[in-house]
Amino acid sequence: MSSSPLPSLPDERGHFGQFGGRYVAETLMPLILELEREYRRAQADPAFKAQFEDLLQHYVGRPSPLYFAERLTDAVGGAKIYLKRDELNHTGAHKINNCIGQILLARRMGKTRIIAETGAGQHGVATATVCARFGLPCTIYMGAKDMERQQPNVFRMRLLGAEVRGVTAGRATLKDAMNEALRDWVASVSDTYYLIGTAAGPHPYPELVRDFQSVIGKEAKSQLEKAEGRLPDLLIAAIGGGSNAIGLFHPFLNDESVRMIGVEAAGRGLDGPDHAASLAGGKPGVLHGNKTYLLQDDDGQIIEGHSISAGLDYPGIGPEHSWLHESGRVDYRSATDEEALDAFQMLCRSEGIIPALEPSHALAVVRTEAARMRSDEIVIANLCGRGDKDIFTVAEALGVDL
Amino acid sequence: MSERLSAAFRKNRAALVTFVTAGDPSAEKTGDILDALVEGGADVIELGMPFTDPMADGPSIQAGSLRALKGGMTLKGTLEIARAFRGRHPDVPLILMGYLNPALAYGPHFARDAAAAGVDGLILVDLPPEEDAELGGALRGEGLSLVRLATPTTDRNRLPAVLEGASGFLYYVSVAGVTGTRAADTADVAEAVGRIKAETDLPVAVGFGIRTAEQAADIARIADGVVVGSAIVDLIGENAADPATAVRNYVTKLSQAIETAA
Ligand SMILES: Cc1ncc(COP(=O)(O)O)c(C=O)c1O
């Protein structure tokens, strides 16, 4: 690794090296440019920052604890394991951090309607939540197949006043929901704000989602400083589109001594087609407004991802991760459905915390990595969601009939 | 710009620009359908490159794209269809239209191979001027036109950026929306076309939402080209056994209406 600090990215055209950019239909371009201008104004406005922080504290419940997982540490037998407890946030995942930031942006832009895509339903619930909080109507696009798998979240969104539209186009999962949200947006640009749920999409979304999620890493840094008086040795986070991971990693990118591992979903194994590991099994291409690693065939047709976790089975990854992968700053690994299920159960029993299946992928790698480290070394894992939404999936995987 | 393409817009009436997807419903039938378009009086052919995620398309063209992919169509196969078309119709301009990713996946020789197949230009829906460097230079280097899109959201400040590097013709998307939805108000379109023509010498073709012969005639009176896509793709979907005949009859009506409007 070079000793000079990493360049500040994205560049003014929204590129992270060869990745990122703004690959959208002309109809959307003026709006995307306007979003960027408004985001720059918001960044320079102390009132915006103050309102964001106030809502994170009083509405979301931040800061989330940085918790020393003593029994997990003992069980693994290596480095000290800390968990960044974003699963304790209002709505149960990190997704709300981003939603608070973006709803404030939407209001600044005078938009009166919100749309979003959702896979597992976590981002849909978080979006429906902030829309209820600010009295804005919202439409959530969700693959018809995902609606079946995630009934409780569909009902939650409806309770919160959202309209949930099932998407039957394509393969009826997350990427198709994103296509449909983009189609809605093209036809409603004048009054509608598209609240993207991960650090992907056309510039400036990857940047602003990262910035809003960076509260995770900033808090973790100062919390660990207080607890241990030093930086962590290793950060580990799961990757769907990459927003919780970039939120944890970004404030540490220039701290050279800190290693980072992003964990993609290996599904039923990387040797077959049933996984969602875009970096390990994909190649660079253009989808949903950005250039990034994508699961695709030789003809450039997009391949559907698979993971036991509905929040990870996206065939792409945020462009900044593609850049961090190619630059070598972050190490990307993967965990299978089975490894994630094992880690899920281990956390339940060792710490009394039921994690979501997404961070269970990170925990699977925590087990193997921490075991190889010395007991005076420190690992922070991002516990980015709680497992309530997943109990039916887990029961089914364990052969239990609820 | 290719001589074929400029000639198509030099006629004393608006050019009829027709879209179908390569491989919908099969490679062989696409050949017949393309011949039917020409026989029906189409002046410019837009051949869709199927993609799994056509984000700017409505249900009709999505369905056409999926039919083509199901039949195994690829970008290589699309270029073969183009090459065969060029052999049968040396003078009819052919534009490929679609999304960037299959072209990128094809590799660095895409522009060269497209030119060699007799393609005259490309429309890439998700390649705005801001990302021109991705493929624009390579296409122009092979003498291919890069047809740019302007929309109701393209304001005065932005139009010059769209026009810079545009060639062949300018495609005015008359509705803020996906393909195959409602039609635009003709007066609004006339105003927009006037605004664009004040800034460029390129012919301006208008598309999105044009289905009937009357609509085609209305647009023919105010623009240099009339683009019809979803309506033809629907006909192909509805007439699986003999799509070419249905397409020929329909396009003949459109071209007659445009002729009469002149
Ligand atoms: C709890 C949780 N973690 C992670 C993800 C994946 O998204 P990202 O990689 O953007 O954090 C999701 C998405 O639904 C989620 O619900």
TrEMBL record, chain A:
<comment type="similarity">
    <text>Belongs to the TrpB family.</text>
</comment>
<dbReference type="GO" id="GO:0005737">
    <property type="term" value="C:cytoplasm"/>
</dbReference>
<dbReference type="InterPro" id="IPR036052">
    <property type="entry name" value="TrpB-like_PALP_sf"/>
</dbReference>
<dbReference type="InterPro" id="IPR001926">
    <property type="entry name" value="TrpB-like_PALP"/>
</dbReference>
<dbReference type="InterPro" id="IPR006653">
    <property type="entry name" value="Trp_synth_b_CS"/>
</dbReference>
<feature type="modified residue" description="N6-(pyridoxal phosphate)lysine">
    <location>
        <position position="95"/>
    </location>
</feature>
<keyword id="KW-0028">Amino-acid biosynthesis</keyword>
<dbReference type="InterPro" id="IPR023026">
    <property type="entry name" value="Trp_synth_beta/beta-like"/>
</dbReference>
<keyword id="KW-0663">Pyridoxal phosphate</keyword>
<dbReference type="InterPro" id="IPR006654">
    <property type="entry name" value="Trp_synth_beta"/>
</dbReference>
<dbReference type="Pfam" id="PF00291">
    <property type="entry name" value="PALP"/>
</dbReference>
<keyword id="KW-0456">Lyase</keyword>
<comment type="pathway">
    <text>Amino-acid biosynthesis; L-tryptophan biosynthesis; L-tryptophan from chorismate: step 5/5.</text>
</comment>
<protein>
    <recommendedName>
        <fullName>Tryptophan synthase beta chain</fullName>
        <ecNumber>4.2.1.20</ecNumber>
    </recommendedName>
</protein>
<keyword id="KW-0822">Tryptophan biosynthesis</keyword>
<keyword id="KW-0057">Aromatic amino acid biosynthesis</keyword>
<comment type="function">
    <text>The beta subunit is responsible for the synthesis of L-tryptophan from indole and L-serine.</text>
</comment>
<feature type="domain" description="Tryptophan synthase beta chain-like PALP">
    <location>
        <begin position="61"/>
        <end position="385"/>
    </location>
</feature>
<dbReference type="GO" id="GO:0004834">
    <property type="term" value="F:tryptophan synthase activity"/>
</dbReference>
<comment type="subunit">
    <text>Tetramer of two alpha and two beta chains.</text>
</comment>
From TrEMBL, chain B:
<feature type="active site" description="Proton acceptor">
    <location>
        <position position="46"/>
    </location>
</feature>
<keyword id="KW-0057">Aromatic amino acid biosynthesis</keyword>
<dbReference type="InterPro" id="IPR013785">
    <property type="entry name" value="Aldolase_TIM"/>
</dbReference>
<dbReference type="InterPro" id="IPR002028">
    <property type="entry name" value="Trp_synthase_suA"/>
</dbReference>
<dbReference type="InterPro" id="IPR018204">
    <property type="entry name" value="Trp_synthase_alpha_AS"/>
</dbReference>
<keyword id="KW-0028">Amino-acid biosynthesis</keyword>
<keyword id="KW-0822">Tryptophan biosynthesis</keyword>
<comment type="function">
    <text>The alpha subunit is responsible for the aldol cleavage of indoleglycerol phosphate to indole and glyceraldehyde 3-phosphate.</text>
</comment>
<comment type="similarity">
    <text>Belongs to the TrpA family.</text>
</comment>
<dbReference type="Pfam" id="PF00290">
    <property type="entry name" value="Trp_syntA"/>
</dbReference>
<feature type="active site" description="Proton acceptor">
    <location>
        <position position="57"/>
    </location>
</feature>
<dbReference type="GO" id="GO:0004834">
    <property type="term" value="F:tryptophan synthase activity"/>
</dbReference>
<dbReference type="GO" id="GO:0005829">
    <property type="term" value="C:cytosol"/>
</dbReference>
<comment type="pathway">
    <text>Amino-acid biosynthesis; L-tryptophan biosynthesis; L-tryptophan from chorismate: step 5/5.</text>
</comment>
<comment type="subunit">
    <text>Tetramer of two alpha and two beta chains.</text>
</comment>
<protein>
    <recommendedName>
        <fullName>Tryptophan synthase alpha chain</fullName>
        <ecNumber>4.2.1.20</ecNumber>
    </recommendedName>
</protein>
<keyword id="KW-0456">Lyase</keyword>
<dbReference type="InterPro" id="IPR011060">
    <property type="entry name" value="RibuloseP-bd_barrel"/>
</dbReference>
